[in-house]
Amino acid sequence: QVQLVESGGGLVQAGGSLRLSCAASGRTFSSGAMGWFRQAPGKEREFVVVISMNGGSTYYTDSVKGRFTISRRDAKNTVSLQMNSLKPEDTAIYYCAADPNDRRSSNPNQYRYWGQGTQVYVSS
Fold first, then answer.
1. Cα 105 to Cα 17, 61, 71, 98, distances in angstroms
2. SS3 state of residue 62
3. What is the 8-class DSSP label of residue 119?
4. In the chain, pLDDT over 70 holds for what percent of residues?
């Protein structure tokens, strides 16, 4: 089992920045790809970004390219998401997820473990 806990959400004005963190515990953290997803009110959960098990490969959804950066520090069992130039449409609950099979997928069904989410609200 892997337990994931997100933190770092909050309220920010458009154009501002936030840094989300995902702390993992349980089985070996380095055994999988780590992704961030988000879900806005009334919408389906959508893929944001994924980083491979070794950290050498990342894949971003088009709407956040150039603004968001994912990183991982296996020594500290954390994955971070630096979000810059935030827009009101980035408002959502952000979830961290782990795929032990390292498939680096944008499909949420490929992820076995999920955190409880952290709220990000961007005001205009």
1. 26, 11, 16, 10
2. helix
3. E
4. 97
